[in-house]
Amino acid sequence: MDILAILGDATRAAIGPEAAIYALAAIGLNMHFGYTGLLNFGQVGFMLVGAYGVAVAVTTFSAPLWAGVLIGIALAVALALLLGIPTLRLRADYLAITTIAAGEILRYTYRSNFASPVTGGVYGLTRFADPIYAINPIPAGRYGFGQLSFSERSLWIMVISWSLVALACVLMFLLIRSPWGRVVRSVREDEDAARSLGKNVFGYRLQSLVLGGVLGAVGGMLLAVYSQAVQPDAYNPAVTFYLYTLLILGGAGRILGPVVGSVIFWFVVVCADSLLRQAIGSGLIPASLISPTEVGAVRFALVGAGLMLLMIYRPQGILGDRREMMLGDR
Amino acid sequence: MTADAGPRATRLPGVPPEPGVAKPDPILVAEGVTKTFGGLHAVQVSRLEVQRGAITALIGPNGAGKTTLFNLLTGFDRADAGRWSFEGRPLAGLPAYRTARAGMVRTFQLTKSLTLLTVLENLKLGSRQQAGERFFAALVHPLWRAREASIERLADEMLARFGLGLMRDEFAGTLSGGQRKLLELARALMVQPAMIMLDEPTAGVNPALTQSLLRHILQLRDEGMTILFVEHDMDVVMGISDWVVCMAEGRVIAEGPPASIGSNHAVIDAYLGAHHGRRGGGER
Predict the structure, then answer these.
(1) Which residue of B has its CA nearest to A188?
(2) What dotted CATH number matches B7-113+193-272?
(3) Which site among B125, B139, B144, B154 would you substitute to test the A interface, given the most A Cβ atoms closer than 10 Å to its Cβ?
(4) Mean pLDDT throughout A48-53?
(5) Pick from A190, A201, A323: which is nearest to B112 by CB?
């Protein structure tokens, strides 16, 4: 077994574009769940409208890319208002039910036949992000060493997406330490107490939902731009739960929780994948027990087991504070 | 019935002890407030006035509708019918946060301390006119820095007044039950209300802390605050209130100075049942 290759693969995933994109979407989820206490189970829906906002605007309507980005953001705001206005006055469970359903409704709508002239149906859309790559200042070639190397395209997307992650973290830091953040956290702790002190709980929840949704949409756009393709089934509910996984792993309600969580999540997933494949390849695990095609599922089973251990021994996540965890009654 | 009302009755001189009676200077006037849950008439208050600058106790057996009335008046629950005005301003139908902004702030029977905010943050949350609570202003520190500093000074004064100074930077979740009641009261005062409504302020609080809590309430009254509170402990009610309102089965059945209430037949019937021999005065 080639340990170096495994670690190389895992590290590449941990700092690669997907890790940054998931971190960005999870920062949005952290705004919802970690700071406001909103149970949004449809973050992937926001990613989808962001991704398709760009793809459809550019491919179907021949709009410039920047307009596509604005459209994607506008769609995320609209989705947040659409989901939030009827549900945010109700108990937390209603938002959870509505968002998980909305995510699936969006996926099925975008992949349906009647929408295919616009969305490309099940095949999706491709090659809409050329302008981004056209302004790539990094000369062609591979950067890095051994397993741990990136093409100039990946590197360019990494620069963009990690910069956006940094920007989002600064934004969250500024917001959370402000009086606005104080009100939002009080809504998480006890909405009635916040109301009794004259705070418009509904308004703050809606603002939080919009902000986190827009961050999710930007993540979705980057994913679309990175792969130069959108395909509806990539935006399935499991993505939202990966986001929750890495958020809780890193520490919900911490500025850097989603970032640390995303890096570790991708490292562990790819490490498990690479390890299993090598173990099967070298005959260490008999192919009759796990076939190479089953690795994809088994690695997530391993990740799940790891998460259970984490919940038992460090329920507050990597960056969380155990004392807070014990005080909180959520 | 109008007999010995005690020294504090001078705050409402000459007001006859009748349900729904008009007060000389009412801060809160409620009329025809009703709420039904299914077939149950939880609240049917035809008229209730609360005197400004006085401590009014709201008593009544369990299920009398006291907390429901609180919830209706403060916008936490929607009344089926009725009008009420606070300082002459109609409040019926307004959401809870607007009621609080109008100057009528409540606390809860089950204390709602914001566990994962520090004690100081809890207090600062109560303050009003903080521009930094708006999304875009929040991003620009200079827009709210000065106001935040003045809020913090006020919060520190409040902490000192309620003896919570040592807990300033601790999570509110680490406070004892009694301290949480004090915190909730202090936090409500940060809103700078004209009236506070306390739902069982002494429930689950040890006797020493109860005494301190009551002193704070009396002191607030002396500073001009109007206080309406729900209470089961008759010693507390008799000890600090200027006026007592008794509810039963959703209605106001009696009102009067504390001394007159203990001997009121309607009150005794409500607590002990109409077929009681009318000998004991034991409340609760």
Answers:
(1) B114
(2) 3.40.50.300
(3) B125
(4) 97
(5) A190
Say if the Cβ atoms of B139 and A171 lie within 8 Å.
yes
Which tens digits make up the pLDDT trace of B12-36?
Answer: 878 888 888 899 999 999 999 999 9
pTM: 0.91
Query: Touching check for A322 and chain B: CB below 8 Å?
Result: no
User: Quick one: angle between helices A65-87 and A92-111, nearest 10?
Assistant: 140
What is the pLDDT at residue B276? 58
End-to-end CA distance of chain A: 44
Q: Model confidence at A294, in pLDDT bands (50, 70, 90)?
A: confident
B251-256 and B26-37 beta bridge pairing: unpaired
Find the CB nearest A193 among B114, B132, B133.
B114
Mutating which of B122, B128, B133, B198 best tests the A interface, going by the most A Cβ atoms within 10 A? B133
Mutate to test the interface with A, among B112, B121, B139, B174 (most CBs of A within 10 A): B112
Label residue B73 by pLDDT band (50, 70, 90).
very high
Nearest to A197 among B113, B137, B191 (CB): B191
Task: Give the per-residue pLDDT at B277.
Answer: 53
Spatial neighbors of B162 by CB under 8 A, at least 6 apart, are B182, B183, B185, B186, B216
Please give the C-alpha separations between residue B215 and each of A240, B200, B209, in angstroms, as whole numbers: 53, 15, 10
pLDDT given for residue A282 in this prediction: 87
Helices (H), chain B: 66-73, 96-101, 119-126, 135-138, 141-161, 177-190, 207-222, 234-240, 258-261, 265-272
The pLDDT of residue A59: 94
Residue spans of the domains in chain A: they are 3-234
Q: What is the pLDDT of residue B283?
A: 43
Sequence ranges of the domains in chain B: 7-113+193-272, 117-174
Task: Pick B121's closest partner by Cβ from A182, A192, A327.
Answer: A182
Mean pLDDT, rounded, of chain B: 89
